[in-house]
Specification:
Elements lengths: L8 H14 L3 H18 L9 H23 L6 H38 L3 H32 L12 H12 L2 H6 L1
C-alpha cells in the first residue's frame, strides 16, 4: 500500500456500489403508482392492465442502479487507488440520486395519471409522455455513471508519485534555508 493506494480506497468504491442500489426509489414509484391503480380499479376495472405502465417504468430505474453496482463491484480490488474509489463513489451517487428523483416523479405522475385516466381515457397518452420524461432523469444518471466508471477504470496502474516541477529551484533553495542562521538558532 502506498499513499496513493491506501487500504481504505476500496471502501469508497463499495459505498458507490451501495449508493447505486439504495438511493434508487423504485419502491416509492411502485407503491405510489400501485395506490393509484388500486383506486382506479374500483372505477374502471377494464383499464387495469393498461395502467400498469407506471409500475413497470419504476422497475426499470432499479435496473439502472443494478447495472452500475455490478460494474463498480467488478472493479473493486485491494490495489485500488483513492482516485478510483472516489470516482466510483461519484458514479454510484450519480445513478442513485438521479434514480431517486425519477422514482419520485414516476410515483407522483403515475398515481395522478392513472386516476385521471379512469375518469378521462384520453389522458393516457399524456401520462405516458410525462412518465417517459421522468424516466429519462434516471437514464441521464446512468449515462453519467457509466462515463465516470469508464474514467475510473482507465486509472488502473496509472498511480504515480507527486511530480517535482522545480528540481533546480528545490536543489538550490532548500539547502540555503536549512543552513540559514534562523535554523541554527532553533537548535
Amino acid at each position: 500500500m502506498s499513499d496513493l493506494c491506501p487500504v481504505y480506497a476500496p471502501f469508497f468504491g463499495a459505498m458507490g456500489c451501495t449508493s447505486a442500489i439504495v438511493f434508487t426509489s423504485r419502491s416509492y414509484g411502485t407503491a405510489k403508482s400501485g395506490v393509484g391503480i388500486s383506486a382506479m380499479g374500483v372505477l374502471r376495472p377494464d383499464l387495469m392492465m393498461k395502467c400498469v405502465v407506471p409500475v413497470i417504468m419504476a422497475g426499470i430505474i432499479a435496473i439502472y442502479g443494478l447495472v452500475v453496482s455490478v460494474l463498480i463491484s467488478g472493479s473493486l480490488s485491494a490495489e485500488m487507488s483513492l482516485a478510483q474509489g472516489f470516482i466510483d463513489l461519484g458514479a454510484g451517487l450519480s445513478v442513485g440520486l438521479a434514480g431517486l428523483a425519477a422514482g419520485f416523479a414516476i410515483g407522483i405522475v403515475g398515481d395522478a395519471g392513472v386516476r385521471g385516466t379512469a375518469q378521462q381515457p384520453r389522458l393516457f397518452v399524456g401520462m405516458i409522455l410525462i412518465l417517459i420524461f421522468a424516466e429519462v432523469l434516471g437514464l441521464y444518471g446512468l449515462i453519467v455513471a457509466l462515463i465516470m466508471h469508464t474514467r475510473a477504470s482507465e486509472l488502473v496502474g496509472v498511480v504515480s508519485p507527486p511530480v517535482n516541477y522545480y528540481p533546480l529551484v528545490n536543489s538550490l533553495v532548500f539547502p540555503l534555508v536549512l543552513n540559514s542562521p534562523a535554523v541554527w538558532w532553533t537548535t
